[in-house]
Design brief:
Blueprint lengths: L5 E6 L2 E14 L1 E10 L4 E2 L3 E2 L1 H10 L2 E2 L7 E4 L3 E4 L9 H15 L5 H14 L3 H13 L17 H8 L14 H20 L17 E3 L24 E3 L2 E3 L2 H8 L4 H8 L4 H11 L5 H19 L1 H8 L6 E3 L17 H14 L1
Helix pairs in contact: 1-2, 3-4, 4-5, 5-6, 7-8, 7-9, 7-10, 8-9, 10-11, 10-12
């Protein structure tokens, strides 16, 4: 289950959501470690592997589901111990099934529990023995560690599912007697009432649109030189692209020039920055002059203002920005982890502000 164990990794500038759980790795001794599971199907168990490779590690015992009595174990910089009469809850097949379910959850796809409940709905609509058998198969496909949570009912657990899956005369775990007709009818009533409750429950629909972008993310890589072009593509969205920006009566060759000019309050330095041959020189001139004392606190407002000016003064570049639809814009900046994403290590504020200005242009 994903629960609150939320994590992610960056792949080519794209954030891949994930979750994690505890696991034992057998590498000579046994090591308590974290198993990271990602939405793209890759799994980190002391190295990224595919789902098929993960299954091989399970079968080989590298990811351990059997813990021998007396075997040595440790948790990194935490403790070391030997197992004494250990009990484990998983087999390789069970852990693999849980991981498959987790990948489905991370992608918003139906997992084994969802498929079982869909089979129940199909049975309620057409109460044949074949449909009930499909419920049984779907129920047994849920990892046994998850079955009691399938209905979200902490009083009855999965009892109604067990009874429906077994059918009259069938056997239910924990009972010596076969399922009676009365118990079966109660299970049917339970699911009928549950279906009515779900049908009447208000749908939880986002009030103002989808929570995640529909368009794939766009990575705005560092690119040199950024000279004017008839069709620059997304290179035209870079701050260093040569698209003159006029601010407070002064025209600067690029947004980067204007940014560093406004970073200092020395008039002569601003004039020199406006004439600087490239953005690197502009940054160096600002550093020599010294930054405004408050610049750390106003820099996002300055950048937002400059990006608005750029795309207002250059409709052709505004069209390129609008053509990115609602994509996440991942901006790299080798000089700043504040402005750039930089492989997931930065804050990507340029990308965020580009998305803001895009929304304003569309409005």
């Amino acid at each position: 289950m994903i629960s609150r164990r939320v994590t992610h990794r960056m792949a080519d500038g794209i954030r891949v959501p994930g979750t994690w759980r505890h696991v034992f790795i057998r590498n000579g001794d046994y090591f308590l470690s974290d198993l990271f599971i990602y939405a793209d199907g890759l799994i980190d168990c002391w190295g990224l592997v595919t789902l098929e490779e993960f299954e091989e590690k399970l079968r080989s015992g590298w990811v351990a589901t059997e813990l021998p009595d007396g075997a040595r174990a440790s948790g990194h910089e935490l403790a070391a111990w030997r197992f004494g009469e250990p009990r484990t809850w998983h087999t390789p097949e069970l852990l693999l099934a849980e991981v498959r379910d987790t990948i489905d959850e991370l992608n918003g796809r139906p997992d084994s529990t969802d498929r079982c409940l869909e089979a129940v709905d199909a049975f309620l609509a057409d109460r044949t023995e074949d449909k009930r058998a499909a419920v049984r198969d779907a129920y047994l496909a849920i990892p046994s560690t998850r079955r009691r949570y399938a209905l979200g009912d902490m009083d009855l657990k999965d009892w109604p599912l067990q009874v429906l899956a077994a059918g009259p005369g069938g056997l239910v775990e924990g009972l010596s007697e076969p399922v009676g007709q009365e118990d079966y009818d109660e299970a049917i009533s339970y699911f009928e009432e549950r279906a009515e409750w779900l049908a009447e429950r208000p749908l939880r629909v986002p009030a103002d649109g989808p929570e995640t972008p529909l368009a794939p993310a766009i990575h705005l890589y560092e690119s040199f030189p950024l000279t004017p072009a008839e069709d620059p593509g997304t290179r035209g969205l870079r701050n260093g692209y040569q698209a003159p920006v006029t601010v407070e009566g002064t025209t600067y060759p690029t947004v980067t020039h204007a940014y560093w000019a406004l970073a200092t309050d020395v008039p002569s330095a601003r004039a020199a920055i406006a004439r600087a041959p490239h953005s690197t020189a502009a940054r160096e001139l600002a550093a020599e002059a010294g930054l405004r004392p408050d610049f750390e606190h106003v820099r996002t407002a300055v950048m937002a203002r400059l990006l608005r000016a750029k795309f207002t003064q250059h409709p052709d570049l505004a069209r390129i920005l609008l053509d990115t639809a609602d994509a996440t814009l991942v901006y790299d900046d080798m000089h700043s982890a504040f402005w750039g994403d930089n492989g997931g290590r930065g804050r990507n504020w340029t990308g965020r502000l580009l998305e803001l200005v895009r929304s304003e242009l569309r409005a």
